[in-house]
UniProtKB/TrEMBL annotation:
Descriptive protein name: NAD(P)-dependent dehydrogenase (Short-subunit alcohol dehydrogenase family)
Record bears the keyword Nucleotide-binding: no
Keywords linked to the UniProt accession: Oxidoreductase
Highest taxon above the source species: Bacteria
Signal peptide stretch: none
Keyword RNA-binding belongs to the record: no
Family: Belongs to the short-chain dehydrogenases/reductases (SDR) family.
Species per Swiss-Prot/TrEMBL record: Nonomuraea thailandensis
Gene Ontology molecular functions: oxidoreductase activity
Domain Ketoreductase: 10-177
Pfam families, per database record: adh_short_C2 (PF13561)
Gene3D superfamilies: NAD(P)-binding Rossmann-like Domain
Amino acid sequence: MTVTYDYAGKSVLVTGGTRGIGAGIAAAFHAAGADVTVCARTGPGRPGHRFVQADVRDPEQVERLIGGFGRLDVVVNNAGGSPHAPLEGTSPRLHARVIELNLTAPLLVSQRAYPLLAASGGAVVMIGSASGARPSPGTSAYGAAKAGLHHLARCLAAEWAPLVRVNTVVVGLAATQETADHYGGRADLDGQAIPAGRMATPEDVAAVCLWLAAPGYVTGAEVRVDGGGEVPAWRHLI
């Protein structure tokens, strides 16, 4: 069965929407008929998307970004990420910037977008991570920020109901341009680490975003897009 969505006449913002998962999400909403705006610190968006250069960690740039909308139906807080950064020996400033990008920025964007979303009966979709739901060695600040993001979404869902729905997509191992660097260049993780036998694709994540952003009853939920989680290490010992 193929599920289709009609977002014609809807205004959608995807932060970090010029590459990777964000680009896949933006493309899916565009294909469903939405007027899509993407933002990022650098680089233009794909044809068919309005592009606004903005660093969503900066409140003044968030004000400029959201101030450019007359209507807003969906915000997908996708901008995020982290380099491999063990806690020991890494600068405090790097950890602070990681937390700002993955937790503070979605809060700022959602807060500023709220009046427009409330007027349209809209939705916020947070792009979370499995790193925020289990230990994340080597990216502790990122994992802690994503755990905070998951909780932020639940808080906003309760605070803003019934006008605005807020949900989270918890993404596991994903196949993007950054995959090789993040997973040490390993190409054999799919079958060994993921029950479904492959990493998530941007299209997998986008499909859930389309569903969560559509009018409905679901709010405060976390939908895992992780192919069944991660295979426990002890399975490789037997």
